[in-house]
C-alpha cells in the first residue's frame, strides 16, 4: 500500500531541490497562509525563516493557491523576465487552447469531449487566478 502524504509533505516535495521553501501560519479562520522564501533567506543563526520573520517572495491564501504557486515556480514559470503572471498566463492559455482543440476533435466521443471540456474550464479558472496574482503583485 502506498504511503499517504499530508498536504504539507506534498508541498515540501514540490519545493525540494529547486531553491525555495515555505512557512505557514494558521490564524484560526480556516485559511492557512503559506509564505514562500528562496533557500538563501535565512535568519542570523542560519535557520530558515518562519512565517513572521520576513516578507518572502509570495504569500498564498490556502493550499490550492500555494500548490499552484509552487508548481509554477518548480516548472520555471516564475523565474523573472516578463511579468510572472504573464508568463504563467501564456502557458495556461496554450494548454487551454490545446484542450479546446481536443474538444473539437472529439465531438463524436462524449466521454472524451467531456474530459477535455473540463480541462478547458480548469485552465480558464487558472488564467483568472494568475490575473489575480498579477493584481496582487502590482500592489
Helix-strand pattern = HEEEHHH
N- and C-termini, Cα separation: 47 Å
Strand order of the largest sheet: 1-2-3
Category from helices, strands and their pairing = mainly alpha
Oligomer category: single chain
The percent of residues in helical segments reads 40-55%
Shape: elongated
- How would a crystallographer describe the biggest sheet? 3 strands, antiparallel
Query: Count of helices?
Result: 4
Nearest-integer average pLDDT: 80
Report the strand count. Answer: 3
Q: Work out the count of structural domains.
A: 2
Q: Taking Cα atoms only, what radius of gyration do you get, to the nearest Å?
A: 18 Å
Estimated share of beta-strand residues: 5-15%
How would you characterize the overall build of this protein?
The protein has helices at 7-15, 63-74, 84-105, 110-138; strands spanning 20-25, 33-38, 58-61. By secondary structure, the protein is mainly alpha-helical. The chain has two domains: 7-79, no CATH class; 80-139. It has a three-stranded antiparallel beta sheet with strand order 1-2-3, covered by helices on one side. The mean pLDDT is 80.
Amino acid at each position: 500500500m502506498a504511503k499517504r502524504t499530508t498536504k504539507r509533505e506534498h508541498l515540501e516535495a514540490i519545493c525540494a531541490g529547486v531553491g525555495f521553501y515555505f512557512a505557514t501560519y494558521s490564524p484560526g479562520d480556516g485559511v492557512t497562509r503559506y509564505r514562500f522564501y528562496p533557500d538563501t533567506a535565512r535568519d542570523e543563526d542560519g535557520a530558515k525563516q518562519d512565517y513572521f520573520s520576513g516578507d518572502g517572495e509570495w504569500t498564498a491564501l490556502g493550499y490550492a493557491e500555494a500548490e499552484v504557486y509552487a508548481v509554477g515556480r518548480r516548472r520555471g514559470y516564475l523565474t523573472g523576465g516578463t511579468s510572472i503572471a504573464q508568463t504563467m498566463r501564456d502557458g495556461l492559455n496554450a494548454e487551454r487552447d490545446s484542450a479546446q482543440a481536443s474538444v473539437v476533435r472529439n465531438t463524436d466521443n462524449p466521454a472524451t469531449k467531456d474530459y477535455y471540456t473540463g480541462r478547458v474550464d480548469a485552465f480558464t479558472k487558472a488564467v483568472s487566478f494568475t490575473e489575480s496574482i498579477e493584481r496582487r503583485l502590482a500592489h
